[in-house]
Design brief:
The chain is α/β, with parallel strands linked by helices and 698 residues long. The chain is built from 22 helices and 26 strands. Bound molecules: zinc ion.
Amino acid sequence: MRLRAPLAVGASLLLMTSAPTARQSKVVALRFGAAVTGSGAPVTDAVVVIEGDRIKSVGTGNRAVPAGVEVVDLRPLTAIPGLIDAHTHMTYYWDGAAGTTPLKQARREPAQTVELAAANARKTLESGVTTVRDLGASGGTDYAMRDQIAAGKMVGPRMIVAGQGISAGRGGGPAIDAIPGLVDTRVKAGSEWIKVYASRGSFQSVDTTQTMNYEQLKTIVDAAHAQKIPVAIHSYGASGVKDAVRAGADSVEHGIELDDETIAMMAKQGTVWVPTIDHNRYYVDSKDEYGFAPEAIPPLNDYIQKNFESTRRAFKAGVPLAMGSDAVYSGFGQNTRELGWFVKAGMTPAQALATATTIPARMLRRDKDLGRIASGYFADIVAVEGDPLKDIDVVISKVRWVMAAGKVVVGRKPAPAPATLQAPSQAAASAPSLEDTIPPGVNFDKAEFKFWSPKDAATLRGVVVLVPGSNGDGRPMADDAFWQAFATKNSLALLGCRFTDKPHDQSFIEDYVNVSRGSGQALLDVLAKFASRTSHPEVGSAPLFLWGMSAGGQFNYEFTAWKPERVGAFIVNKGGIYYSALLSKAARDVPGLLFVGEKDLQSRVETITGLFAVNRRGGAVWALVVEPGLAHVVGQSKELGAVFFEEMLSKPKGAGFIGDLRSFEVQPAASPGTPSTPNAWLQTERIATAWKTAVSAK
Ligand SMILES: [Zn+2]
């Protein structure tokens, strides 16, 4: 069911409306409920102006928004600086294949590892981490990932890398006179840090045996410092930590039972300690996945307690601490859980946040451009839901949107409003919106909605239903200037939706997406409520125009499968997993627009193109679009989606057009019912012509 030559409709489709296509360093204003900047008190009603990959200014309120710039309104979310994970192993990849474990898998070529490890990089970004210090990789894989990310060829956090660590062989640590050469080789290859293993201990082993002596460590540190390269030293045991600190290490990784003298020395020298408490919690939780023996678990738990206890004492004594996950294999995405341990160890949430922002930025000698939201700094910004200074869990598990170096990598992507759609009039903008909630149902915890309608519309022609990705809050989308302008122009209402899953042990998909189990009814119920609360009784039965991203797209598809009679048209943006494959005739007759991202996960692309193909063969009047160059983000799809809805509002009759997915030829169709997989159905001449223009330009 895979289509080899997917239909490509890009920005040029929108050229019909003369939308801008140039990708210069444009200026964007981000609005947040508040911003925790890393300097001083939080800024309320924050406006962060971005130019290219940098922050231009930080201000507050309407007056801080420069005239004429694009505005991305993320209120009420709170902005925090992009986080820094001081200890990762980004190139440790495991695909979870049956019969393998992370430590028992077939060898791969370095190039293949780099490609696959992009998944680790993406999960890391999703946790709010926009910079990592990667401490140990083989085959030059970390250099390759760093360079690809920096060049914009791979989506991931900025990587500062160490290459292969220096460790002791069977006969002990390296000979003293060989050490400068070992350091030099790494620096020449591209290492920005030197990583040293001064003890045993890794994975399920908590062996604290020191494997390099003070003289060896001191020689490594001196050789590296002579080249202005800092050194990170791994030691599970106390003696190795002490020797590392005495030798002048810039950071020490892991460690337990630190004595007062060592702690005092670290505080005095400013040696950064990266205790990586949580990584052993990860090994305990993942014991089955790894196949660890049961007897490995008590020592891991014992190590966690001692590690935590030393952290508590070190924090009290003023040692600078940094958040390091030591993430490997399936641990990516859990990068920030260390912050929970730090708060337990006595830090305030603000102090814990510093261990992932200002402190590691200083450690990396990047405190002039990383770790703060301030003018001149990199535009690395994370939007979280809630107050991160009250509850550190807001940082750990409520990341909703991430910008890295000026690019939106998680959540909504800023997109310019197309020229066809006028800016909303003052009257439209000031129309009140209404909110309502449906109590928990079978498959959702709570369903919350925001309804907006243009002030002057006598009769509404339909409702645009906006559903964001996985458990996201779509209510702010009802305030979105783009959608309000579109709704005003076409006499439509907007309904921003937020569905949250019921907590459950086992789920591979957002459960609320299974609409027939209750969430779909919640949507109909709330429309009935708004019909009675507003002067628009027609919204209780008006056609729905469903726009959805990722899990939101899945929701829309399943809703169309369930209640095709209520749907005017639906859009699926890059969802991954579905309950229904071949839909009913009535559902196949609802116009659909399915997007895939050219660079999205292959499984998502295959799923959507497969659904398209099987339903197209069944006569579905759907179009398939591949957004060129994009992955799992909203690209041109908002604008193209609006054009599509606008066309479908007029309920076009006629046979439409067939777009050949291989030759890109467009032919008038003999009848709507002439499906031929893998051809796309292009409902109107406007869409067909635009599609042809776009693909011919390719
Ligand atoms: Zn490590």
